[in-house]
Amino acid sequence: MSIQVPFxxxxxxxxxxxxxLEQAAKRVIQSGWYLCGSELESFEAxxxxxxxxxHCIGVANGLDALxxxxxxxxxxxxxxxxxxxxxxxxxxxxxxxxxxxxxxxPVLVEPNPNxxxxxxxxxxxxxxxxxxxxxAVHLYGQLSEMEAICAFAREHALLVIEDSAxxxxxxxxxxxxxxxxxxxxxSFYPGKNLGALGDAGAITTNDDELANVLFALxxxxxxxxxxxxxxGVNSRLDEIQAAFLKVKLTHLDNEIxxxxxxxxxxxxxxxxAHIRLPHVASDEAHVWHLFVxxxxxxxxxxxxxxxxxxxxxxxxxxxxHKQQAYPELSHLExxxxxxxxxxxxxxxxxxxxTDAQVELVIQAVNSFSL
Length: 370
Ligand SMILES: *Cc1c(COP(=O)(O)O)cnc(C)c1O
What we know:
Layout: H1 10-15, H2 18-31, H3 38-51, E1 55-59, H4 62-75, E2 84-88, H5 93-100, E3 105-109, E4 131-137, H6 146-155, E5 159-163, E6 171-172, E7 175-176, E8 183-187, E9 201-205, H7 208-217, E10 222-224, E11 227-228, H8 239-269, E12 275-276, E13 291-295, H9 298-307, H10 335-343, E14 344-347, H11 355-366
Parallel strand pairs: 2-3, 2-4, 4-5, 5-8
Antiparallel strand pairs: 1-9, 6-7, 8-9, 10-11, 12-13, 13-14
Helix pairs in contact: 2-8, 3-8, 4-5, 4-7
The structure holds pyridoxal-5'-phosphate.
Pyridoxal-5'-phosphate binds near residues 62, 166 and 199.
């Protein structure tokens, strides 16, 4: 059968806002100003307000958001090369790359298999005299237990960075993703819940000094043209992408609401002994970037669903410590993560799905048998 439910239909998502996006593009084209101008400045102000933080610093992508924040802390003397950073073992590779690229050491901590997020109870055993920071990754769109993580960090004098690339708009008691830690990195990769039409990313923080260093780092380490304070990079968020993101930010909460409706139907109507549904701490804490189930018969289920016209993907097939890029991590035994990487399967949770498509996914999953 042909695909009836694509995993994510980016064309349909952006087509909803075609007119507004064309207006935004036209405005930028006619302005004659394409980098670090009024579109970026206003997007930064609007996204900081959305995230309830004092500052937002736009950068070229989510990986740079994380990498530059850690570099800024090195420049500020808050971190030193060789310091250890706690990070969940089952995260996307970008979290780990940001740490190792800065000469810092990623210390992989097992997640809670119910929430997929870093397990605070496993953090104490990973502490050493060199531990100086923790990177909490809000995986699949669900906020980590930030109250417990921040309390742990205060107790052990650790910096906290949130990898919020999958969790724009998630809240705990009204407090937004990106506002809990000392800083947070966001990605606006097209497939993220808030996606540009190309690459983009941002850092949010309430720290004036950090924001100031980051504004320089993203622009060759320079505040003033041809005067370089740091060995920075070129990581700017284009005016045209900022203009698109301003349009899409106004629709983000609606899209999250639709994702929550779809997820709520899956949670109440999917019923199959081969499948374990995801655990949700609270409605508001999850923005359903991905709807991830666990199953012992993943290959058979994925193939069956595709036959039924439902496209599913795996996030992620290989854990970071088993990647060829990290031979220094290959000796680690992380059974919880390794088990998750064998079992996880992501069902479509695209905000443009019709009710009939949602129904089709539910029927297909429920009718699976070996
Ligand atoms: C997407 C993603 C990133 C990186 O974002 P890019 O914009 O692709 O560089 C980092 N961390 C996580 C958890 C992500 O999902």
